[in-house]
Amino acid sequence: MLTESRDCLVDRFGRVVNYVRISVTDRCDFRCVYCMAEEMEFLPRSSLLSLEELAQIGQTFVQLGVTKIRITGGEPLVRRNVIKLFRDLGALPGLRELVTTTNGSQLPKMARALRDAGVRRVNISLDSLDAEKFRRITRVGDLRKVLAGIDAALEAGFERVKLNAVILKNRNHDEVVELARFAAGRGMDISFIEEMPLGVIDDHDRAEAYYSSDQIRQDLEQVFTLIPTTESTGGPSRYFRLAETGTRIGFISPHSHNFCDHCNRVRLTCEGRLLLCLGQEHSVDLREVVRSSPGDMGRLSQAIRDSMSIKPKGHDFDLGAQPVILRHMNVTGG
Ligand code: SAM
Ligand code: SF4
Hints:
Oligomer: single chain
Bound molecules: S-adenosylmethionine, iron/sulfur cluster
Order of helices and strands: EEEHEHEHEHHEHEHEEEEEEHHH
Number of strands: 14
CATH architecture: Alpha-Beta Barrel
């Protein structure tokens, strides 16, 4: 058993890890072109961590000083009974921020339950406000459902609802101003994300579709005044505020602005692989640990501590090269 005293995870480079992103499923009701290939083979259910195993790992991380957990996927809200996991994590003393990232499609029926389970903030992915373009990017998504999901999240009373938009040249780069206006009009923040080369996709050439954060910023500056801020949410975003509305605009720019020096996070895949870096393969198999020593929190805790010695210095994404990271974002947990 672990004692009540709280530890702290520190890697070889002195970076404190206090944030864990947990992917609870690789499945999804969408097939976004930058995230998945059109035909995907999903993992057999038996290889996924159970909700109880996920809760046990989450609890151990919190005992090791983690204060923020993001539940993601795949689409986290399509995992059966996932609310139970949110409730278990939401009840952990020491966990300051329980948050989630979703495509929004299930929020009309689940937003309230998430809020009641202790989720403080939600990020909702929205790449286009045009139903046809939205369908092209998500391959199967229905914009109306996602907009209803955003409304449901705003009504449920989360501390903050933020939009995430992956911007691709010639797909949706012409919508950045509209997306910012949409967010501002509803009191939401918005982050613009550069596409990352995770997994082999068949829809487009990632280098050709690259649209940098600096280009997005210039587009926004045609209409708004962007004021740089030093705000941080403990993530890789650089933030600005719109002078006109106060809306916070984030840029996640793995290519143009490397954020590794301040990395404070690790990721747990839905199969229980603890990934020490989004852009590298260094990992530890926590599923093996929880399944071979059920209930042994001490062994789990030691395995997590030991993993700090292999956290790499940083990623080396290269859009022009063949992807070195073969796992898709839905497995990794974006
Ligand atoms: N299904 C949920 C969603 O779409 O919000 C959660 C999982 S998704 C993998 C998390 C975030 O990763 C989304 O904002 C999505 O747009 C982003 N994403 C997926 N693939 C990406 C890629 N190759 N490059 C950059 N962002 C990506
Ligand atoms: Fe699904 Fe999210 Fe990937 Fe889109 S980005 S396919 S919604 S997991």
